[in-house]
Sequence to fold (87 residues):
Amino acid sequence: MYCLQWLIPVLLMPKPLNPAFIYNHAMFIVLYLTSFFLVRKPCTICSLVFLAAVFLICYNCVGNCILWHCSSDECEGADCETTCGSA
Fold:
């Protein structure tokens, strides 16, 4: 489990506040993880634990996903009243 010490901080890295930099941040993370897996070759257990953590964080979409932006508002767009219903 030595290799997890290099992967867990990736989950804790904050996303940029400016929405223009979210794509750059996602590309940095993808390139970092790709190079990490190619160079360091972590064990299978560490890889599975990390991928499960990323999946669970991105699946619940609370805004902490490192790969894409999860909107906190479920009702967006011009059809807000018809899709979400008027209150």
